[in-house]
Amino acid sequence: MAKRGIDLRQLRPRAEDRFGPFIVSNRHLDGNPIGSGASTTTFPSANFLFAHPFMVPRNLQVDAIAVQVNTAIASSHVRAAIYDAGDVNGFPAKLLAETAELDTATTGTKSTAIDITLSGPRIYWVVTQTDAATVGLESSAKADAFNLGYATRGTNEPSNGLQLSHTFGAFPDPYGTITFDDTRDNLHRVYLTVT
Asked: Is the pTM higher than 0.70?
């Protein structure tokens, strides 16, 4: 794996940088460090994991994980997960929480109750997968995300996430081989509900 010149362990997010001095209970955080501008819809490839860094500014008790389905497809599903940034470079390692299959045959919020405390400030990774390439998930623009570096100097498209070929189903633990996703135009929003 080629180095990208960033060590995610060195990022020290502060609550006031993204969320203000406090986080209100029963709010849904999407983890984008710069802000959540206008949303769009993207269609992730089936049978891949798509991982993005998620900034946790302070200790948070999380009771739900959700995605927003904007384009529904019959007999299709999505899953979402949270990974600890535990490998030596701060990339996803240990699986902390995951959803079961969430039906994407209808639009709307697809959510699963979880019970997890995330320690902050630190980086976690949220990960999505689908079993149909035509499922449309609510997404944020690349401008709202971490810049994980460029595959080639002089290019205009930084990587803001990871991808991993994976047959749809239970998430791997540990995450697996780190491969930068240099092709995504937008990032799938994964919402964590803070209690």
From this structure: yes
